[in-house]
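Troubleshooting entry. Yesterday's outputs looked truncated, so today I'm pasting the complete records for two proteins to confirm everything comes through intact. If either block looks cut off, that's the bug. Protein one:
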Amino acid sequence: MQDTTPSQVIVACGRTVDIDSPVVLWNHAGGFRCPHPRGRASCHQHPAELNDAPTQPFDAYRIADPDRAYEELTQTVHQLVLHYDVCYTSRHCHEVLQKSAFMGSHFYLDLDGTLYQTCDLYWKTNTAPADDRKGNERAIHVEMANLSWQARAEESDLYRAEKDAYVKQGTHWRLQLPQAYRNTLRTPGFVARPARTYGQRGYFSRRVNGRMVRMWDFTEQQYEALIRLCFGVHALLPGIGLKVPFDKNTGRTPLSRLRNFATFRGILGHFHVQAGTTPGVKCKYDPGSAFDWGRVRRALETQQQTTRLGNASR
């Protein structure tokens, strides 16, 4: 029987942390189960055949000893990888991942800021193999609702948009959702607006991993929820540092794969770990050109400064 109690917690090996933001868990009404979870090879509180075997029934993914599992997980995971889902909403994203043979994500982040956790963080989801093909072992993933490449209708390829998905009303832009997804958001009547716009055209255009990416920004609600998720994931898994990639020489987050992509301990983008330098591994560009790395970095730094001051005054 599904739990209908409103949630603000995220879960790792049965342990929870309250992130002060709406979270719908996989076993709650309206939740989404990860379509294709897998076991992590470096964790051993599950049958080894769950690591890379074809997807099993969801109930087969059980943790034998949650306390030992948690110890193993904290020693294994040190990255939170951010993605755009190239979808209209989180429900749309879930539908797409269900059709795949092996893909999934620990979290979906919807336009209205609702987070969906699809499985216990103990499990692996195949979302970003990285250029060393070991990325999913060390990472937690969040797919954030954003059409990304469809900033301009003539460049759309996945859904063949006949017209631009964003329209301007007065001084504000808003996303026009197809009828099939207008009522799938948890917040009734929610209007999706980009948190920032660029000039008269509205969308952002920057080169990511060597390719020009034109996309609209995420919503204000998504940024607020994501920052709270970062704090919560760090609280559960301290190996994920409260930092993003940052180049002191330029004063910006680099928009290309990192040299230390495998050892970086913190929050980073899919493009930071995967430039397609390994045969069979695609070059990636998410979370794209519009993502506000500066906002996230400042929020993380402010929280850490507040914590240090609080500790010093005790």
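Protein two, checking that the full record survives here as well:
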Amino acid sequence: MKKHILCIGDSNTHGLCTDPSESADHGSRYNEEERWTCLLQKALGAEYLVIEEGLSGRTCVYDDPDMDSVNLLPVLHALLNSHEPLDLLILMLGTNDSKVKFNTDAKKITKGMQILVEEAKSVPCWGKNGPKILIVAPAPIEEGVIYPDFNEKSVETTRALAREYALLAVAERTDFLDAGGCELTKADHVHLTAKGHRQMAERMETAVRDILGKTAPEAVEERRE
């Protein structure tokens, strides 16, 4: 059986494109040649199955009065069991939790991520090597964000997530990846550009191979250069 990798995230895992000029199809979603999840699948090869589970507006643990079913916690158990056996769970959330309506901060968002991680560990969905989870701090929102749901505090909160998530990963004995620096579009300062998706895929490939213990020789050579 292939190694199953479940990628749970928000619009940047779904592949939302808010600048149609960035997408080859000029649509509202990057296509299968552009999304980081699909690029990761291509890079890893046939021995892996990368499963997309991205939903715009998704939060760690908050119910959004303006959007239906975006809280991950109530559906996490079902999602994990739907795709078992899992070899790796990638969780990249936190951006939407920083919305003004939730009146939160980086430590509170990290507590929500901790709840998700501990819940995921308890679900009997894992392969022979047991739970393996990669916590990803999303690329921070940039100044100039156009959406009224976000403000300057949201910018600062998302900037602080990487440090808090890294500490959480140590405490929970999971893996951690900082997506900061992956390019965001100047159209809204929240969503990844096509280049940002490529950058994300490259970082994810390295992380996945390290976590699952199988590094391609060419990947090793690239890191040496």
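Both blocks look complete. Sanity check on protein two: The helical segments are 11-14, 36-44, 73-82, 106-122, 152-172, 194-212, 217-224.
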